[in-house]
Amino acid sequence: xxxxxxxxxxxxxxxxxxxxxxxxxxxxxxxxxxxxxxxxxxxxxxxxxxxxxxxxxxxxxxxxxxxxxxxxxxxxxxxxxxxxxxxxxxxxxxxxxxxxxxxxxxxxxxxxxxxxxxxxxxxxxxxxxxxxxxxxxxxxxxxxxxxxxxxxxxxxxxxxxxxxxxxxxxxxxxxxxxxxxxxxxxxxxxxxxxxxxxxxxxxxxxxxxxxxxxxxxxxxxxxxxxxxxxxxxxxxxxxxxxxxxxxxxxxxxxxxxxxxxxxxxxxxxxxxxxxxxxxxxxxxxxxxxxxxxxxxxxxxxxxxxxxxxxxxxxxxxxxxxxxxxxxxxxxxxxxxxxxxxxxxxxxxxxxxxxxxxxxxxxxxxxxxxxxxxxxxxxxxxxxxxxxxxxxxxxxxxxxxxxxxxxxxxxxxxxxxxxxxxxxxxxxxxxxxxxxxxxxxxxxxxxxxxxxxxxxxxxxxxxxxxxxxxxxxxxxxxxxxxxxxxxxxxxxxxxxxxxxxxxxxxxxxxxxxxxxxxxxxxxxxxxxxxxxxxxxxxxxxxxxxxxxxxxxxxxxxxxxxxxxxx
Length: 565
Fold this sequence. Notes:
With 565 residues, the protein is an alpha+beta fold. Helices cover 38% and strands 15% of the residues. The chain has helices at residues 8-14, 23-29, 31-42, 61-72, 74-87, 95-107, 177-198, 217-223, 275-287, 290-293, 329-350, 369-382, 389-401, 431-435, 457-463, 466-488, 490-504, 526-532, and strands spanning 111-114, 123-127, 133-139, 160-161, 168-169, 203-209, 232-239, 243-245, 251-260, 264-265, 299-304, 313-314, 317-326, 353-362, 440-446. The strands form 4 sheets. It has a 7-stranded mixed sheet with strand order 1-2-6-3-7-15-8. A 4-stranded antiparallel sheet has the order 11-13-9-14. A two-stranded antiparallel ribbon has the order 4-5. A hairpin with a 6-residue loop joins strand 4 and strand 5. The radius of gyration is 25 Å and the shape is globular. The relative contact order is 0.18.
């Protein structure tokens, strides 16, 4: 028995059901899981007997035009990726990176609409005026603390911020979103070129997405209807293998808990009220949930945002930021509610005031078998990314530095396989909310070495090298080829749409974000607003955001005591 195919008794236990329960009972208990994992089982798909179909991908002049554009403009595409890697801009502050993507799209005939759903660095690029609408994705945000020199196989931050008491690293593309954005943009332009050259009736939309690493941009944009009207959505993500993604992901809730107290001297702490105490107590309380309150599919993790500046000053404000993940929105809410109760109890125990802010929430991904199979057939025809001896040498150096087997980069495509019968937790994406609006096909392309996780300096090291270039160019080819098949073989698009309809029958998607919830935002520089024609603040945004200020009184130090003689 392996982890991909757990036994029935273990599976039932994961979902809190008795040994006499049936798979149908599990799925009835959670209709969203029934639409994701349960659908494939219900339609007779077996991981042991499944064989991916062939003959879906067809050669055509239009497809060749799209692939030829990618081949002819490799330098332009990879230059975009490397430029964004160099900028390494954090979520919701991707000023230069979003402009770079929009410029390339505009230069290739797309019209640009800035600021959908109130996010300044988001945009919708559109080509064409009639026919089915195919959507593509671009993300371009970096991660804090993952700075790394390109092409260096040992940890060597490009930006090191000296501080005598707490040095830090700069931001870096440790999830390779520089390649993701460039690959999606290239695919959209390639399809537009084929539409123009061969007179195809179709529209292409490239969605520039802000703050994906915080799972914010798409979640709010979907709620506002930005992604309405799509016939299909095609996406990819950097990974350590190359394969179509036919699976689900975690639903996720993001929230911060700020504890407000009263500051004072650390040497005379009686009567001080520490916000840091509140945050640490919440973290400690939440840890006690893990054994008896968190299923194998559940995750929660956190970061202390402002834990104080010096040990001799009791901090009167401290925030702890939680991500809560589970296999479906309903399951995520149950776990999240338990986390919230820990926050309330921590505030009471630390005698601080709690300010709780919900930031974002997104569903788990609704995969599409037909879309995955179409991408798979095109990937088999086009072939795996081609890596050089130098690429393998760099990959092995990164693997050695991180204590992983020195196997180099993968040279073959990973076979397409159905998802396992149970979901045991993992990553999340705000593309998931799009997948409940339109049939969505996703693939992964090897952008960093096997054995290395996302969000690691090793990813940053390869994301702006020949390894990253080959991954993004391959992804662009796979997506563009699949899109042309959908346009030239309408039955394939109809099949994807019918599967989407069947999976979602009886289900109504509803955003996890409460009505009126203002997203986290940063005010753009004046030159960015001018370049994009936007004004600040966006409609329905309160700016400046009302400050959170501690107004708490110091605590009692107890009755005065007579001197001890």
